């Protein structure tokens, strides 16, 4: 068994959640915050048999899209806006980690 941790943009989260439900893929949805932008994103925890990992990754890839954001570097690093040029960054699609699960139990 594997645990997939998938961090997606919140704009894609509901669509992804529905795609999981449609395929009977069990997932837990967490409201999270990116450490760099300090903006809300969504993290899914998906416990899944090894043979379905590729399918889950395909669904995540299909439902997540990258977006361009403009970041004020001073605001990000110091918390103060001392107006410098915004920097364009590309956020997401999805950031995924696949971990081996040592034990899975439900009581
Ligand atoms: P954030 O940490 O808010 O990062 C948002 C975007 O800012 C990143 O998009 C990337 O384009 C940029 N960025 C982040 N750290 C940077 C840095 N030190 N220097 C320059 N640019 C930087 P993504 O890479 O697509 O990441 C989207 C979100 O996924 C992240 O939001 C974070 O919540 C999560 N994430 C990404 N990599 C991770 C990792 N290695 N471990 C844990 N979470 C991660």
From TrEMBL:
- Source organism phylogeny: Bacteria, Bacillati, Bacillota, Bacilli, Lactobacillales
Please name the InterPro entries in this protein's record. CdAMP_rec (IPR010375), N-reg_PII-like_a/b (IPR011322), N-reg_PII/ATP_PRibTrfase_C (IPR015867)
- The protein in question is named Protein from nitrogen regulatory protein P-II (GLNB) family
Report the source organism. Answer: Lactobacillus panisapium
Alphabetical list of SUPFAM superfamilies matching this protein: GlnB-like (SSF54913)
């Amino acid at each position: 068994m594997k645990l997939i941790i998938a961090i997606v943009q919140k704009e894609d989260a509901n669509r992804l959640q529905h795609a999981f439900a449609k395929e009977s893929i069990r997932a837990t949805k967490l409201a999270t915050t990116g450490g760099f932008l300090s903006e809300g994103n969504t993290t899914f925890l998906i416990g899944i048999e090894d043979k379905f990992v590729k399918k889950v990754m395909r669904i995540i890839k299909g439902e997540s899209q990258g977006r361009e954001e403009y970041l004020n570097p001073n605001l990000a690093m110091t918390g103060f806006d001392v107006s410098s040029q915004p920097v364009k960054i590309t956020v997401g699609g999805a950031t995924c980690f696949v971990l081996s699960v040592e034990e899975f139990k439900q009581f």
